[in-house]
Write the structure tokens for this entry.
Amino acid sequence: MNCPGTYRIFQARSGAATVELPVRLRRVRQSTSLRALGALHGLMRVRAFTQDDGHVFITEDQITSESVAITRLILDIYRVFGFEDVSIKYADRPPKRVGSDDIWDRAEAALKAASSAAGIEYTLNRGEGAFYGPKLEFVLRDAIGRTGSAAPCQVDLNMPERLGAYYIDAHSAKRTPVMLHRAISAPWSASSRSCSSTTQGNSPRGSRRYRRSCSASPTGRTNMFVALRKP
């Protein structure tokens, strides 16, 4: 879990005025998950993985606009990689969670408002939210029909307060920010498996590196991993 480290980075900027929010931070690093041996599955479910964790610190009034921006970014990137069949699940409060019901009511209402503003349709995944906030789950379907959760977009009104994050508002008062969690590619191992299956090993045509590598290829096509290694 990389979130506490991001809080430390944000707190190094404590004292930032409201006009500086949102603060968008992204970290690419390895994480671990002690899954049972029976739950491991190829590249999809592993114990050590790398992902692009992103965290956005905002005011409560900015939840809708930033959530819409994240949602559209995720869908745009998936289209580049050939994922057109993307379904979205809305996961609400789980039985074991932190925070009061009032905080959860506000977080869930804000995420639903963002979903409506983005014009997306979702199915309810009851009780499957993170312990700190509700989330949208983007589910990919590969070329042979397998599905797997990829990127999440989570609204978090609990952890910033519990970890002491704050910003200075226009009236020079300390305020607790809202935090949005997102990971576009999710674990890279799982995304690589899904992308390889969907593209049959060829890089997406929207990739600049793909076009550059194709110029030197007699067939006009190249393996995705070779293309991504090119400078």
Summary: The CA atoms of residues 112 and 184 lie 20 Å apart. The first strand starts at residue 23 and ends at 32. The chain has two domains: 3-200, 204-231. Confidence is low (pLDDT under 50) at residues 206-231.
